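Contributing new complexes? Match this layout with iron/sulfur cluster.
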Amino acid sequence: MTHIDQVPTPGAPLPVEIGVKAGAARTNPFARVFDELVRFAQSRSLFMLHYCTGCGAVELPPAMTSRFDMERLGIQPMVSPRQADILLITGYVSVKTLKRVILTYEQMNSPKYVIGICSCTVNGGMYWQSYATAKKLNDYMPVDIYIAGCMPRPEAVIEGLRGLIENIRTGRADAWKDYYRRYDYYLGNQQRLFGADWQTSTDVIAEARHYDLFGPATLGAHTALLEQHQRPLEALEMRIEIPELMRRRSRSDQDGTAQ
Amino acid sequence: MRPENYEAQRQPPSYDYELNIGPNHPGIEGNYAFKLRLNGDRVIAGRADAGYLHRGFEKLMEGRLWIQNLAITPRICVPDPVPMEVSYCLAVEDLCGLVVPERAQWLRVMQLELSRIAAHLFIFGGHAATTGMYTPMFWGIADRDLILDLFEEMTGGRVYHIYNIPGGVRRDLPDGFGERVTNTLDYLESRLPDYDNLLFTNQVFVHRARGCGPISQQQALEWGVTGPNLRATGLKFDVRRDDPYLVYDQLEFEIPTEAPGDAWARALVRRREIKESIRIIRQVVARLPTLAGPIRCPIPNPLAWNVPAGSTYTRVESSKGELAWYVVSDGGERPYRTHVRGPSQMHAVQVLEQLAIGCRIEDVAQIMFSLDACPPEVDR
Ligand code: SF4
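Output block (do not edit by hand):
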């Protein structure tokens, strides 16, 4: 157990390295068998963060409930990003949503998988000329599987999920590593959309070191900008103007509608 | 955030706090957020935070041909897309002076009412889930799928079926379709008592929903509430009856109303509307064989179609409330300006903010679902 005095100060390296390093040399002859077992277990118990970003979300309730029944594949919806394995992007992402999607993606624990449902995530779909939507999802985060269609039927969604399961079992679903290896590229695209002072509360570079995925393309011109703009997180402000709301409320009550 | 980067901020001691619900939250309907200021578990104030689904429809439509716009109109409201396409077609027909053949009008009514049932089944499942009952949700979604199957057969699409075009509908019914509709309706009707037992007379639901988020009739009129939410305050207003479009004036149906105006009344109005919609579709099925004739009138070459200059406002009754298009044409190939008046904008923003004040935190989700607000349509 960690004593309170041992909690590291900000910036200091973690005292204990937790987890298996992804690139570490495996000397144990049973490691391969063990890895396969772990991957099999991972592929059969997936929790899916169901963030309805666009209209494709309306085909998920049928896919999740009794008729098409996603649970028989071991996939269940999960409400918190920390415990979720799959991030499902169900349709077009507006710029405002994309910020939240990136925050959510960075909060998820690795290994994590992203599925882009709907044509809108592939190339903008029918909103190709819209001023408000982000066109290609894999400019902003690595995507494991795309399910095209406008909108894809529940069968297609299930088929896509089965493809993901197969990829996880055979160890091919490793798009999440790309985010750490080429963080500069993704961050650059994000900055182009959200402005140069865009930053998230996750320390992706430290995580890249932690997973041993730190590569030559992790740092670059865009992450250098990040250093300049690194500012402490602001305390939550109360932004709801109560007097105005109460005034509106009392006005409608005075008009003889008190309940 | 990594824990070592976190520094707690000192705040003055207080029971007040602010809570964000959404956009990624199971208690919120779709991609929508609601900020609450709370004292203990009482809501002091709420602020709706929309815009997560904004695509800029009104601008997009100015850049596309009249016929191309048909493809994007249903995307405005996802659970109930049919009224969108129908009212847009009505607007274009009004501008061009097209006369829609009678058979097409009846087919449109059938599609509209099927869509209304599907949307109501979807939403009361969601409403039940916010009170902790998940079985009605599973049942509602499964039964809704039967209607989607009918849609697939009729139009080719499960959720979005661009079935209407200005001047009529795209294709006629397949053989034996009326019989299959009747079978599905029989089944749905036989399920209604089950729903009553499971949900509408269930004490858990009744106690949670009664008195939750009440709207008085005058408030409803001031705030621009329409549809089932307005009828739940006792006012008998329905565009289908008061400003009939298509062939609704030839159909027999009731307008269900309830007096209390709370979440329970709103759910009950929807429950009774399902029954009325079934009744309407039965009349359409009985009437269709007697109507031979074309299903659309000839239109000019759609790729070079100059709609005469003018403006029009057409409204229909969707499952959420009154839905209308205001379309302006300057005589060109593309609309000059379009505007959609959606019911959910009022319900999810003004009304929800007002109703949240003073309620308990666990009722916020229920109020939102009982208002049947549709976030994609709020943002457009
Ligand atoms: S591809 Fe079609 S169904 Fe999917 S989000 Fe885009 S418009 Fe909606």
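Reviewers usually confirm one structural detail per submission. For this one: The domain at 29-258 of chain A is CATH 3.40.50.12280 (Rossmann fold).
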